[in-house]
Amino acid sequence: MKTNFKNKQPIDLLKLTQNLSLAILGSVLSFAAIEVANPARSDAFVIFNRSGSTLEGGSRWDAAPRTIHGRERSLEGGLRYSLQGGSYQAYRDLFTWDIVPSVNEFQNAIEAAFNAWTVVDPVSGLGTDLSFVADLETQVIGTGRGDVHPDGAEIDLFASTNATFWNPGNTSPQGEAFFYYINDTVTLTSGTENYAGSSAIVGADITFNNNAGTVYTLDFFRRLLTHEIGHAIGLGDIEGDISANRFIDDNYDGSTSATANATLSNPIAQLIDPLNPAASPFSLFTVPDQDPGVDTPGVDILMESRGLGIAPGNPVTNLSPLVNDDYAGRQFLYPVFSEPSASEASVNEPTATLGLLALGMIATRLSTQGKKASNRE
Questions:
Q1: What pLDDT, in 10s, does the model give residues 46-69?
Q2: What angle do CA 296, 220, 307 make, to 5 degrees?
Q3: Residue 52: how many CB atoms within 10 A of its CB?
Q4: Following DSSP, what letter does each residue of 32-78 receive, concatenated?
Q5: What is the model's pTM?
Q6: pLDDT tens, residue by residue, 129-142
Q7: Nearest CA to 281 among 294, 292, 266, 291?
Q8: 9: which DSSP letter?
């Protein structure tokens, strides 16, 4: 019998963990959903701007240097982020807190949210080339209402009382993220150039509700920011009513709670083809926001819209809230090669050296700006 952790939470926690998320493909509204705490864990994921019903394409930050409007807009040197107000203290003071964090505590929370996307996957052992760098001297540019501008920092953080999916007077702690992309192919972090069907993310905005009466805890703010950063790098929410037939997995089976749990908890990041993620042995599924499905006990996924993965197995205090699903999505968008074990490295040293030389000969290119479009989450 399922224990509904959501219904067992105190009312004030339910209110605290409300969050609004949305996605727009191109200029077409795709979804909007309220996020509340929910027990969920999964190893599948959703990406934006695939090619039709295939796994090809997808929007990513470019691994090759790219300049837009005279500003660096790629993974080169790390993704730079800035804050409305120009400092951690100024940004902190735009919000109401249950307990006001010190400037140092607030800075640590923001850094932890970004750093969560850079840690090694503890199951597959796969790391990442993603990194993030504070660039507070660069002024944020935009209104915080989805009109992402390809200037400012690569990721701008805003506060607003009037955003795309909330209005003045709304007092729910919530956020939304948008990214701006151009229809120009990217170089994958694995070295594949001109990746078929891909599009380059060149700017992202993350906005939090700061209407009077909206109260945040520092732990929830950090978890919410971590989720929204996932959108800013190209990942979507996973519920079937939000992302119908967009859930990428190897073997999802929603026949029963047991089969859903078994097929949503097996790790798949190691199955991804680093040179061509679209060739990985996956399919597209619709996973409902119910049991069997996203709400099956034992499933806690950060990129779940309704919950942010907050559950006993992934508490809001967790500084590493990514689970198999999130690591697999990261590997699909930003693939890296697995590191050989010490014994494999010693046995295969000549081959490995030749492989590194071959990769070193792959020329990077400076991509040019293509047709503009906007992708919003």
A1: 888 888 889 999 999 999 999 998
A2: 20
A3: 7
A4: EEEE-------S-B-BSSBSTTSS-BEEE--SS--EETTEE-SSTT-
A5: 0.80
A6: 999 999 999 999 98
A7: 266
A8: S
